[in-house]
């Protein structure tokens, strides 16, 4: 039995020490360009979502970034994003309270926009029409703000 252990040990340890980079998800940078910004007070906030069930709930966003609203076009960069499907929501947080202000709990009172700029007719926007894929390398998307 000891002999079997000594013979098998190098093979088992080699199998278990597979290069960690093979097991890790690849990551990339995501550049979000927000257009039609009306420069002024506050910040442009961008919430990035990886889970359709948490879409539009910033407290459950995959990541959130912000930049000053000082130009008509603003860029936000998310670094080291694992490959996968995401959706993004951007808004002009004019009063800098770090949330999208709503009227009647559902109608935005601050400028907002979604990745892919889907038409929102009835009900809240869904993850699917706003989703995009982040692959290897740099991914760039644009979001148009609606005031």
Overview of this protein structure:
The protein contains 3 helices and 10 strands, in the order H-H-E-E-E-E-E-E-E-E-H-E-E. The protein is of the alpha+beta class. The protein has one domain (26-144): Immunoglobulin-like (Sandwich), CATH 2.60.40. The strands form 3 sheets. Strands 2, 3, 5, 8 and 9 form a 5-stranded antiparallel β-sheet that branches. Strands 4-1-10 form a 3-stranded mixed β-sheet, with no helix packed on it. Strands 6-7 form a two-stranded antiparallel ribbon. It is globular. 24% of the residues are buried.
What does the secondary structure layout of this molecule look like, with pairings?
Elements: H1 2-16, H2 20-23, E1 27-35, E2 43-49, E3 63-68, E4 74-82, E5 84-93, E6 102-103, E7 107-108, E8 112-114, H3 127-130, E9 131-134, E10 139-144
Parallel strand pairs: 1-10
Antiparallel strand pairs: 1-4, 2-3, 2-5, 5-8, 5-9, 6-7
Number of strands: 10
| Approximate strand percentage | 35-45%
The level of helicity is 10-25%
Helix count from the secondary structure assignment: 3
- Total count of domains: 1
At CATH level 3, the topology is: Immunoglobulin-like
Globally, the shape reads globular
Q: What is the radius of gyration?
A: 21 Å
Q: Can you name the CATH architecture? A: Sandwich
* Helix/strand class: alpha+beta
CATH top level assignment: Mainly Beta
Flag low-confidence runs: 7-23
The helix/strand series, from N terminus to C terminus, equals HHEEEEEEEEHEE
Distance between the termini: 75 Å
Kindly report the average pLDDT value.
Answer: 88
Taking the sheet with the most strands, its summary is: 5 strands, antiparallel
